Amino acid sequence: MEAAAGVSAASNGGRRPLRVFFLPFFARGHLIPLTDLACRMAAARPAEVEATMVVTPANAMLIATTVTRAVDAGHAVRLLRYPFPDVGLESGVECLGAVAKHDAWRVFRAVDLSQPIHEKLLLEHRPDAVVADVPFWWVTDIAAKIGVPRLTFHPVGIFAQLAMNNLYAIRSDIIRDGVAAPSVIVPGMPGKEIAIPPSELPEFLLQDAVLSMEWDNIKAAQLAGFGVIVNTFADLEKPYCDEYRRVDARRAYFVGPVSLPLDSAVHRGGDGNMDCLEWLSTKPSRSVVYACFGSWACFSTRQIRELALGLEASNKPFLWVVRSEDSDGLWAPEGWEQRVADRGMVVRGWAPQLAVLAHSSVGAFLTHCGWNSVLEAASAGLPVLTWPLVFEQFINERLVTEVATFGARLWDGGKRNVRVEDADTVPAEAIGRAVAGFMEGGERWEKMRARAGELADRARAAVSESGSSWRDLHRVIDDLTEANASRVRSNEDS
Q1: Angle, helices 468-493/443-463, rounded to nearest 10 degrees
Q2: Residue 30 falls in the annotated catalytic set
Q3: Which is catalytic among the residues 36, 133, 235, 326?
Q4: Looking at the domain assignment, is residue 267 inside a domain?
Q5: What's the total number of domains in the chain?
Q6: Range of the domain at 258
Q7: Residue 296 and residue 28: Cα distance in Å, rounded?
Q8: In CATH, what number is assigned to the domain containing residue 9?
Q9: Per-residue pLDDT reduced to its tens digit, 348-394
Q10: Quick one: which of 30, 93, 144, 481 could link to 89 by a disulfide (CB 3.0–4.6 Å)?
């Protein structure tokens, strides 16, 4: 295990800084926001907090620039590397988005094999607190061994967490009724009724899967831990945040959007395609639709082709990000790239999404409704077209379209399914009509844009001094500092 060079915190009245370790899951959607959180905590109290990202070597490379910028700003942020477990992946492949779908199980196997590594590391370094990602449920027990607080970091919003918790309680009924049931009413949700077809629910609610077998461990560890940190802001999910604090967490801290402010947006998550920002600068204000479906979008070749033809048929400028796995171009219809060259750009691999969303030429976001994308769209004040694919994304979509009302579904014309291979293909004609109609405006679109702008204002206010997320960030530091002081006093008395 190797620690990278960092900085020591400034003098703090003779006290050494609070040493907090952060353990992210092996996926960019977890790694990036947890790194943002670590940097934000270190920046909030430069003399009081030393943040250490505990990561595998290839994942360390993805966040190295962000950490370096924090260090250059005088903040105590470090990297501590540990070996990625041998699960049969190529050297340097350590992230969910970097593997083919048929190899995803290997990444989850690496999670299981990380338990003894985490224990050895934490017993050796003995930090003052640990913020560990959801899958690493065993960290609660390890932290208890060394007498320090463990907080669970949730990269998923509160609305989806509550929905999944409440649906899990009736999981046997859902399984009994099967996917033939027209919809499931999510029990125990404040506000309006939320109904979701079983085919759009995460698979662990429908059958025994890796997560369903781990769910009880995850929930028990969360409830036994010190508290929960969530990348959200209260004004986006207010009634659900209140309910979550009431029923599901001893302490809950809502500290997002951790991606704000945007001064380092280009550098998050590793190298991206910077040319797209120059390309955007050649387009009129609010004219471009940005299409990105995350690092885990597994479209069929047929669906990718329909999407390509749909973007072409919209006659609107577009910036489209495709997975590196799909970058060979075999999906592109003959002559397509030449036909759209004057108004379309395809980014293969990774794009600087925050910088793209903040660009004045971008007018809408076609998204899979991964939580980071939902939160980043709201923070940027962009209305969204929703195309959920997997995991809890269909639940996030309900927040966007039915509760927060800053987006609309791309398509209602066929069967959707969390098993992408079982979903109907969305035809090019429907995609073209939806994108064109959304970008051309109208009263409904203007209402969504106004609502998105309101959420952006509230997101910025939340992370500004005395805002709700600013207060929760400082509260978690205060609570951890007090817990550490209490531990020290107890050790001195014994």
Answers
A1: 30
A2: yes
A3: 133
A4: no
A5: 2
A6: 2-262+464-493
A7: 10
A8: 3.40.50.2000
A9: 887 899 999 999 999 999 999 999 999 999 999 999 999 999 889 99
A10: 93
